[in-house]
């Protein structure tokens, strides 16, 4: 049996603007993971793959799935990448603790876990850059026009500074910091928010370009703060980023409540994370205040909170 996994992720700064060429920062969330498990099975045709994903009630042979199904796609892409050698009948079982459609990278983590498990089981583990490129192809199904930040951060499992079309920069930081993630409980498919922003950008390019530029500058400043250990400056930068995300129309009343709650309970700054219109918010919190902020978020309606330490 071969088992592989990949973490969840959260976008710290720069979502949406990153689709328009500006920089963004994302970090892994290792408290939640997707796992893929491969076992050889008997008594079936050579090379057949049976796929089980209990959380989405999927129990099918690969050939029964539409080729554009994300799981079918990542399996085919992986087999193609390793030259589709002859292999015994296999069972692929996928499990995940990452909430879906909430900005935590669940689809991406599943793709990466499958690439890793399958290529390793078949004796040809793929380099990280290739894993990321394969997951990016599947992102196109989830996202339409993905920037590539999700597959990069999940593959490298490190905080990254990302500009579309460039190799991600692993962010080195000597000062770890704590994030609290609060889930509004409202699923929000990334394509909906990304398409909404695209339409608004087409209607008013100067307004949106100015917002994207300002968001990109915040991401650049945050990069320097992280690398130089000026963690106390991250909260105010998050608040500025949130104001701009409000301006481009991707916040929501529920996100606003959780963001305000976190700040009132002691977070030094907070913002939505990912596509917005639902999903998760994040807050940067002094370690002494984490319990207070988490409790306040749950009382204010967060269906789930997670605590993660960002370090390299
Ligand atoms: O997958 P999410 O919800 O974290 O959103 C990804 C971030 C976007 O900038 C909105 C889209 C992208 O491809 O970068």
Which helices and strands occur, and which strands form pairs?
Blueprint lengths: L1 E12 L10 E17 L8 E5 L4 E4 L8 H12 L8 E7 L9 H16 L6 H16 L5 H8 L3 E3 L6 E2 L6 E7 L6 H14 L1 H24 L5 H14 L5 H12 L4 E5 L6 E6 L4 H10 L4 E7 L2
Parallel strand pairs: 3-5
Antiparallel strand pairs: 1-2, 2-5, 2-6, 3-4, 6-7, 8-10, 8-11, 9-10
The site of (3R)-3-hydroxy-3-methyl-5-(phosphonooxy)pentanoic acid has 15 residues, from helix 4 and helix 5.
Helix-strand makeup class: alpha+beta
Low-confidence stretches: none
Strand composition percent:
15-25%
Order of helices and strands: EEEEHEHHHEEEHHHHEEHE
Query: Overall pLDDT, averaged?
Result: 95
* CA-based gyration radius: 20 Å
Helix content: 40-55%
Largest sheet features: 7 strands, mixed
Number of strand segments: 11
**Number of helical regions:** 9
What hetero molecules are in the model? (3R)-3-hydroxy-3-methyl-5-(phosphonooxy)pentanoic acid
Note the gap between the termini. Answer: 30 Å
Count up the domains: 2
Describe the structure.
Strands 1, 2, 3, 4, 5, 6 and 7 form a seven-stranded mixed β-sheet that branches. Strands 9-10-8-11 form a four-stranded antiparallel β-sheet. Helix content is 40%, strand content 24%. The protein has two domains: 2-162, Ribosomal Protein S5, domain 2 (2-Layer Sandwich); 172-310, 2-Layer Sandwich (Alpha-Beta Plaits). The longest helix is centred in the C-terminal third of the chain and has 24 residues, at 205-228. By secondary structure, the protein is α+β, with helices and mostly antiparallel strands. The chain has helices at 70-81, 106-121, 128-143, 149-156, 190-203, 205-228, 234-247, 253-264, 290-299; strands spanning 2-13, 24-40, 49-53, 58-61, 90-96, 160-162, 169-170, 177-183, 269-273, 280-285, 304-310. Helix 1 packs parallel to helix 2 and helix 6 runs antiparallel to helix 7. (3R)-3-hydroxy-3-methyl-5-(phosphonooxy)pentanoic acid is lined by residues 11, 15-16, 18-19, 103, 143, 146-147, 149-150, 190, 194, 274-275.
